[in-house]
C-alpha cells in the first residue's frame, strides 16, 4: 500500500510539473502566404506587457527572395527591415529570419509583410510566430518545492519547442527544393519542345530546298 501511495503521489507531481512546463512553453502559429506585388499583408495579435515575441520567417519563392517586415505596437513601431533570403547558406538565411522582441506596450500588435517595392513579382512567405506570457503558474507553485524532476520536464519542453522550430525550417527547405526541381523540369521540358520544333523546321526547309533543286534541274534538262 505504501509503495502504491508513493507511486500515485509521484504521478500527481509529474502531472503538475508537466502542466507548469507546458505553461512556460511557447504558443505556435505557423502560416504560409503569398504577398502580391505592390501589396502588403498584415496579421494582428494581442500581447501582454513584458511578453516576448519570437518569430521565424523566410521568403521561399519570388524575385530576389526579398521582403520588408514591419512589426508595430499599439502606438510605436518595433521592427522595420528589408531582408534578402537569396544566400546559398541555409544557416545564414535561418539566422537572418529569426527575431526576438520585447513587448513594451500591451495591446494589439501588427505583423506586416510589405512587397510594395516589387512591380511584377509576388513573394511567398513562410513564417511562425511564438509568444510567451509573463504570467506563469510558477508564482503559485514554487519549482524548488516540486523536486529536481521539474528541471528535466522544463528542459524537455524547451527541446520540443526547438524541434518544432527545426521542423518549420525543414518544411521551408523542402518547399524551396521542390520549387527548384519543378522549375528545372519545366525548363527542360520547354527546351526539349523547342529543340523538336527547330529540328522539324530545319528538316522541312531541307526537304523544300532539295525538292526545289531537283525541280530546277529537271526544267533545265527539258530546255
From TrEMBL:
PROSITE patterns: GOLD. SMART domains: EMP24_GP25L. Pfam families: EMP24_GP25L (PF01105). It is a single-pass membrane protein; Single-pass type I membrane protein. Its main location: membrane. Residues 40-131 form the GOLD domain. Keywords: Membrane, Mitochondrion, Signal, Transmembrane, Transmembrane helix. Belongs to the EMP24/GP25L family. PANTHER family: TRANSMEMBRANE EMP24 DOMAIN-CONTAINING PROTEIN. It is found in: Endomembrane system; Membrane. This is GOLD domain-containing protein. The chain crosses the membrane at residues 190-214. It comes from the Eukaryota. Residues 1-23 form the signal peptide. GO terms for cellular component: endomembrane system; membrane.
Amino acid at each position: 500500500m505504501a509503495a502504491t501511495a508513493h507511486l500515485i503521489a509521484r504521478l500527481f507531481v509529474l502531472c503538475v510539473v508537466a502542466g507548469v512546463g507546458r505553461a512556460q512553453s511557447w504558443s505556435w502559429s505557423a502560416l504560409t502566404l503569398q504577398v502580391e506585388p505592390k501589396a502588403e499583408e498584415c496579421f494582428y495579435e494581442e500581447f501582454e506587457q513584458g511578453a516576448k515575441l519570437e518569430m521565424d520567417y523566410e521568403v521561399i519563392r519570388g524575385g530576389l527572395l526579398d521582403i520588408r517586415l514591419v512589426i508595430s505596437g499599439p502606438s510605436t513601431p518595433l521592427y522595420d527591415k528589408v531582408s534578402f533570403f537569396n544566400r546559398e547558406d541555409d544557416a545564414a538565411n535561418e539566422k537572418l529570419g529569426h527575431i526576438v522582441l520585447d513587448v513594451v506596450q500591451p495591446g494589439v500588435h501588427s505583423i506586416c509583410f510589405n512587397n510594395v517595392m516589387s512591380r511584377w513579382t509576388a513573394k511567398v512567405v513562410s513564417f511562425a510566430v511564438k509568444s510567451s506570457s509573463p504570467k506563469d503558474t510558477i508564482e503559485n507553485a514554487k519549482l524548488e518545492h516540486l523536486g529536481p524532476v521539474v528541471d528535466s520536464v522544463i528542459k524537455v519542453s524547451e527541446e520540443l519547442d526547438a524541434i518544432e522550430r527545426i521542423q518549420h525550417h525543414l518544411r521551408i527547405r523542402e518547399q524551396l527544393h521542390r520549387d527548384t526541381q519543378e522549375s528545372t523540369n519545366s525548363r527542360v521540358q520547354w527546351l526539349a519542345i523547342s529543340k523538336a520544333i527547330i529540328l522539324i523546321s530545319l528538316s522541312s526547309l531541307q526537304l523544300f530546298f532539295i525538292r526545289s533543286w531537283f525541280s530546277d534541274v529537271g526544267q533545265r534538262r527539258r530546255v
